[in-house]
Amino acid sequence: MAYTDDAVLAKLSALNETQESIVTVAQWVMFHRRHADRTGQLWLQRLKDSNSNKRLNLIYLANEVAQQSKARRKDDFLIAFSPVIAEATATAYKGATNDVQQKLRRVVEVWRQRQIFEIPIQEAVEARIDELDKTRSSAGKRMGGSIFSSNTNAVPNELAPIVEPQQTVSKLVLSTRTSTNAASADYDKLTDPNAVVPSAPVHAARLNGLLKTLANAEGAVAESIKARKVLIEGLEKLLDANRVALAADEKQYELLSSRKQEIDNKKRDVEDSIMRGFATNSNPGTPAGPGDGSPGGASHSPITPAPEPDRPEVEALTPPGYPQPPQTEPVPELDLDSANGSVSTAHAIPTPQPPVAGADLLSSLSSPYGRPGSGASGSVKKRKLNVADDFPDLGGDAMDGLDADVAEMLYQDNKNGQ
């Protein structure tokens, strides 16, 4: 089958996971090694358009071709795969299942052990895979984290315009390095004065391949330069904005410092005036009078409060008393005792009671006004008078001043009564 783009795509489409299919297609591809660069481009295009399992088969095909080329010392496909192998491996690795990813890592490990590609190319492939693993692990942590936890890895709004340019530059660094290293290696090999010059057709083909490699490296470097210019432009805008903000902050700082010093001076003046006021008064708590320059006599020291007013006098709680009737003297009674011929005079002898606290209130509640309480038997004590003591001595003769006839009659009555 003649070599055409359709023939290459047909062979790649018919590829399956069996070892026989992979070896058969690899032999056909290596037979047309002079078209290695075009084969490498079609291989990458087909890999990007395929599903995950088909991509793994295409990586197996590139592995078979690269190892056979290394064993036969034919560098055509090694040179053709070097600029694109890192991108192709990352494309196949991204979004694949864990099983497919483990198989891809095993292939990359074989490349390192057998030194299939140059060290910079090998490091670029491994770096792209590690970057994808880190991105997947960080995304898993964010999705599996608590909904109440804050995202500490969030990019500030001020840095958002430069995030995408920085990511573009980071992606272009690996591809640019790979392309430039491959172009430099091919250039040194073909321009080595000690190298054996091949036949004219082979030399022309190699020079043509070197031109393509140099063109790819030049394009990669141009893209990197463009991306870095965009990044620098964003950084300069961010820098200018921060310079303006810095100038405003410095101006505000100076204003606040001056105001702080002004208020501090005023505070010291007020404290000094307070201390001078204390020095003029012997008692710091004594209020200043009107004659001392104060607005009025009611002003006091700012430290000692005004004295409290005197407590009002409160009248004791005493129940009101009731009016007492005047005391009356008992009237003597005369009792003529015919049996013994003696005259008895009886009168009530009130028993004096000692004054008791609250007696007025109790007496008013228990008995009528002015009535003395009676004894248990209700009787009045009486005492008898001797004959010789019929009447008490009132300081003179009771008959003095009476008419003689009246006195005689009273005397006779008294004598007959005895």
Notes on the structure:
With 418 residues, the protein is mostly helical. It contains 12 helices and 3 strands, in the order H-H-H-H-H-H-H-H-H-H-E-E-H-E-H. Strands 1-2-3 form a 3-stranded antiparallel β-sheet, with no helix packed on it. Helix 1 (5-13) crosses helix 3, helix 2 (19-31) packs across helix 4 (52-71) and helix 4 runs parallel beside helix 7 (98-114). The relative contact order is 0.04. Residues 141-153, 284-302, 336-349 and 366-380 have low confidence and may be disordered.
Topology:
Blueprint: H1 5-13, H2 19-31, H3 36-48, H4 52-71, H5 76-81, H6 85-93, H7 98-114, H8 119-144, H9 160-190, H10 200-280, E1 333-337, E2 342-346, H11 359-366, E3 383-384, H12 404-417
Antiparallel strand pairs: 1-2, 2-3
Helix pairs in contact: 1-3, 2-4, 4-6, 4-7, 6-8, 7-8, 8-9, 9-10
Please summarize what this structure is:
By secondary structure, this protein is mostly helical.
Give the total of beta strands. 3
- The count of helical stretches stands at 12
Can you give the helix content as a percent range? 55-70%
What is the N-to-C succession of helices and strands?
A: HHHHHHHHHHEEHEH
Biggest sheet descriptor: 3 strands, antiparallel
Beta content comes to under 5%
Q: Biggest sheet, strands in spatial order?
A: 1-2-3
Shape: elongated
